[in-house]
Design a protein that fits this description.
alpha+beta; three-stranded mixed β-sheet; 83 residues; globular
Length: 83
């Protein structure tokens, strides 16, 4: 995995559970979701595994290298439409 970011998505107004999950965008050429998830399981508690785990070509870093939340959400929405 080359890069990745965990973030909290805006709550889905249609969610009946009221559960907010952590999502992740990952840049991991040559790896699939199972391989990335296995690596994450070794490092974090299963309750914190990201859902969804979305693969992208690059993360939307700004000029200072930060990841603006709005840009992450936009990229995640685009990745979810492609999935």
């Amino acid at each position: 995995m080359l890069d990745g970011a965990f973030f909290v998505r805006d709550e889905d107004e249609n969610s009946s559970t009221g559960v907010t999950r952590v999502a992740a965008l990952v840049v991991a050429p040559g790896l699939d979701a199972a391989a990335v998830t296995e690596q994450l399981r070794r490092r974090i508690d299963p309750v914190f595994l990201p859902r969804p785990l979305l693969f992208v070509d690059s993360l939307p870093r700004n000029d200072t290298g930060k990841l603006p939340h709005d840009a992450l959400l936009s990229l995640a929405n685009s990745a979810m439409k492609r999935a």
